[in-house]
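Hi R.,

Here's the chain you asked about this morning:
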Amino acid sequence: MSNPSWPNLRTAARKPWLLACSAVLLVAALGCAQAPTDSGTPLARAAPESVGMSSARFERISTAFEQEVAAKRLPGATVMLARKGKLVYARAFGQRDPKAPDPMQLDSVFRIYSMTKPFATVGAMMLVEDGVLQLGDPVSKWLPAFTDVKVSTPAGDVVPARAMTVQDLLRHTAGLPYGELTQNAAVKDALTKAGLYKPGVIDFDVRDLTPDQEVERLAKIPLLHQPGTTWEYSLATDVLGRVIEAASHQRLGDFLRMRLFAPLKMNDTAFQLLPGQRARLAEPFDRDPVSGAPIRLIDVSQAPANDSGGAGCVSTAADYLRFEQMMLNGGELDGVRVLSRSTIKWMTSDHLGPRIPLAANPGGGVLGASGYTFGLGFAVRPADGLVIVPGSAGDYNWGGYAGTGFWIDPKEQLVAVFMVQQLGALRLHHRTLIRQLVYQAIAD
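And here is the predicted structure, written out as tokens:
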């Protein structure tokens, strides 16, 4: 889907910035455009200076995004930031829906697309800690349809594939495709015929298939690479969701609600809108402000036929910040332990190394231009340098197709989430902008 680690911005920079200034009162520290609610205070608040941040420099975030909204380059956004376990910045900008008068709120709900993937990853690792799953398990142990999978060769032949493993699903080395990204014409055509890719209709949406339909149809399509040999972004996390269901004997949404969302009090996170959320759902512009292309996002008002572990959740900035803080804390939040510290370390370490290359196509480019490597469900920064955005060695992140993004920086004890509903080149610009402005506010 979209690159969470934010590669070069040439596409976004082709036109000059025409940013209008907005005569809006700047807020210091934790100033918010709207009065805070329980959904807007996911962690205990603190003055920025008490945790080494600058209130004055936070104003640069507010100014920048007020200008983006005023210039109609962004319908609205919500930003939350915590350091050392304390909420130090929470702000909503612009409109919840550009066709409606109500402003964006701290508890506005967003389609988070691929920011669902970390939830599915944590779910799988819970089953590893339960002793139910092992990373070396062949996927066919849990999903027999994957027993005799084939792989497409560069010559156009189809040959038997080696067994893909749970680890391959977690780190995107399963050889599976995304129809939106693959350049293999035969595989793209097969995905279209199977209903796993819907060109001209909607991208990254396979929620209309039942779990069995999804698995059976995908298993019949040749892989792009031998499993374990190449990193390429794909439907692997959707398949991981089906493995979780087989191993837990529960629907994915039920499993995650019981084991992750409810314990962490992520009460606004689910695979469809919950009662009362419809009026809080953020919406995009009708068209991309840069290209003019129509924007189509998934319908989250109805129950899906399958819970998409790769792209299906809705959530709020507050809920996601609690998830991030749990990860930063080594698997625990407010006395509730979700995973062990050692498992978090394992997940956020490099799982590609020098032996597994990135695919030389758009599916590999999702990670390739970023300078990040990949762990289990997260992009992982290998060094302080090399990357075009500020950060620290060991920070990890991901993002969503509709513009959302997050990152976790253990060295700086920092977690941040950026929620928006925006497609196109400006996603890269806004994600880079928020990271730059957050790090310039570090003052210790």
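One quick note: The longest helix spans residues 55-70.

Cheers,
M.
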